[in-house]
Amino acid sequence: MTHNKKLTSTQIAKLAGVARSTVSKVINNYPDIPEATKQKVMAVIEQHNYKPNVFSSALKGIPQKIITLYLHTTANDSLTSSMGNLDSSYVMSVMTNFIYCASQQGYLLQVEVINESDCQESVLKRIKATFNERLICAAVFLGLTDNATFIDRLAEQGYKVFSIDRIIDDSLDGFNVTTDDFNGSYEATRLFLDRGLTEISFIGGDFTKLSARQREAGYRAALKEANITPDVIPCGYSELLARSIAEDLLKRGAKPEAIVCASDIIAYGIIKVCGREFLENVKLIGFDDLPFNEYQQPPLSSVAVDFHQMAEDTIKAIIDGCESKRIIAKTQLRNRL
C-alpha cells in the first residue's frame, strides 16, 4: 500500500477511469454500481489510502453526525446592521447556541450561506446531494422567506429539514421552529397599557418573515382589547431602515407615548437618530433582547428569546425524533423602563 499525498475524489475517479459521482456511489454503497466497477474503485481507494471524512460511516450506509445550518440572506439583509446580516447579534445568538447544543450531543454543526438570488433549482439539487451522499443527517434553515419554496420540496420528498421562522405545511415531513412572537409582542404592548399609555405605535419587521407578522398581530391584539386604534409603521429588520423612519418622525414632530419595535435592531436605529431627549418622553421596547440592550442610554427593554432552548429542542428532535412538527422557543419580557 502506498501512502501518497492525500488525493481528492476527482483524482481517485480519474485513476479508476470512472466518473466522480461513481466514486461517491461506491463510497456510499449504492446498489446500482456493478460489482466489477466497485472492486476497481475500491482497489484505487485502498492503494492510495484514500479516506475522506465520511468514509467509514458512509460505507455502512450511516448518515454522518453532521448538521448543516443554512443561513438564507436577502437583499434587505445587505443593508447596514440588518438582523439577517451574518455578523448580527441575532444570527450569532442562533448559530452559537446550535453549535454548542450539537457538540454536547457529539454532533458537528457546519454553516453554509444561501443567497436569495441563487437559483432555487440549483440550491435544491445541492442540498439533496448532501443528503443522498449521507454527508449530513439533517438541515436547519434560518432566514427563509415565503418565496424560498425549495424548503417545501425538500420536506415533501422526505428529507429531514427544520425551518426557523418560516412555516412548512404540517402535511409535509418538515419541522417548524418558531419563537412565541405573538405572546411576546402582546406582553410588551400590555406593559405600556398597564402604565396608562394609550398612544402606542408599532414599527414592524420584514413582513416576508413569520416572526414579523406574529409580532404585529400580538401588538394589534393587545390594543384591540383596550379599544385603541393601532398605529403600525412598516419597516424591516434593519437599523438603516429604522433610522429613516426615525428621521421622518422627527420631521413630522410625531411623538407617540410609546413605541413597540419588532426587533432590537429597529430600536437601535430609533435611539441613534432620536437621541436621549426624545426617549425621555417616548418609551421604547424591542424584541430579541440582544446583549447590548443594558448599555443603551437609557437601557432598552425587550422581549428575550430563549435561543438555547430553541437549539436544544431542535437538536433533540434531530437525534431522537419528535411527535410534534413544531418547536416553539419561549419568550420573556425584560422590563428596563
TrEMBL record:
Top-level taxonomic group: Bacteria
Annotated GO MF terms: DNA-binding transcription factor activity; transcription cis-regulatory region binding
Cross-referenced Gene3D superfamilies: 3.40.50.2300, lambda repressor-like DNA-binding domains
Listed InterPro entries: HTH_LacI, LacI/GalR-like_sensor, Lambda_DNA-bd_dom_sf, Peripla_BP_I
HTH lacI-type domain segment(s): 7-61
Keyword Transcription attributed: yes
CDD domains: HTH_LacI, PBP1_LacI_sugar_binding-like
Keyword set includes Transcription: yes
Alphabetic keyword roster: DNA-binding, Transcription, Transcription regulation
Protein name: LacI family transcriptional regulator
Organism field: Vibrio sinensis
Species lineage: Bacteria, Pseudomonadati, Pseudomonadota, Gammaproteobacteria, Vibrionales
